[in-house]
Write a structure and sequence with these properties.
The chain has 226 residues and is of the alpha/beta class. It is built from 8 helices and 5 strands; from the N terminus they run E-H-E-H-E-H-E-H-H-H-H-E-H. It is 39% helix and 14% strand.
Length: 226
């Protein structure tokens, strides 16, 4: 290789000019949460959306849709919404309660999420057996008893009133703000239930929930409670 200094005439040649490639714009990672309920779940996840989209608009964008559908129809609605998106969703979270729906529908929804996932879009079955109120209670204590979902509401009311926060109602819009300080406790308790329910289908995992999977994915962006 020649060590001779460059001639003045070489400085204007195209091969000597520095490249000025246009910087590539990094697109945020798009997430869609589709919930069975139209009140409790959209309010809870909507508060998360407000925190995340405000603080990290260039890194992640979260959309929430309360579908009012259940199990199998909820998955189809989620798939429809994902297909209609111009941005393309990297993660689609299908959030549903088992309630008293047929076991085959509950389990089939989880199966469809696995089968329909692609490299571009991953579908996640985020079920709660029996309802999202189990996830709320796990913020305060571990519970392993298979109680009917109607028993959860009085327990939540007891906890909230002890903190002068009023009684629990399904349409409360401040549950995220109330629960945020205890989020690590809820994740740990949900993981304990997951280990106990290992190998069981969603319909048989009672009590049990997958909500911690979704919350853990979003937790790095949940830097504050609004």
């Amino acid at each position: 290789m020649s060590l001779k200094p460059l001639k003045k005439s070489d400085f204007n040649k195209s091969w000597m000019k520095a490249r000025r490639d246009k910087p590539k714009k990094i697109q945020p990672e798009y997430h869609l949460i589709v919930t069975e309920g139209t009140d409790t779940e959209p309010a809870y996840f909507g508060s998360m959306k407000d925190v995340i989209n405000r603080a990290y608009p260039d890194r992640i964008q979260l959309n929430v849709h309360g579908a009012g559908d259940n199990t199998l129809s909820l998955f189809q609605k989620a798939k429809q919404l994902a297909s209609a998106s111009a941005n393309g969703y990297k993660h689609v979270w299908v959030v549903y309660d088992t309630d008293d729906f047929p076991a085959e529908h509950i389990n089939k929804t989880a199966q469809l999420c696995d089968e329909e996932s692609t490299e571009e879009t991953t579908y996640h079955a985020i079920w709660s057996n029996q309802c999202i109120e189990l996830w709320f209670l796990l913020h305060f204590s571990f519970m392993q008893s298979d109680l009917h979902r109607s028993s959860y509401w009085p327990k939540l009311t007891e906890i909230l009133t002890a903190q002068s926060l009023g009684k629990y109602e399904k349409n409360r819009v401040d549950m995220y703000q109330i629960l945020f300080p205890y989020i690590e406790t809820a994740i740990a308790n949900a993981e304990k239930l997951e280990k106990i329910n290992e190998g069981k289908l969603p319909s048989a995992a009672a009590p049990g929930t997958k909500l911690h999977v979704l919350v853990e994915k979003l937790k790095p962006y949940l830097t504050e409670a609004i």
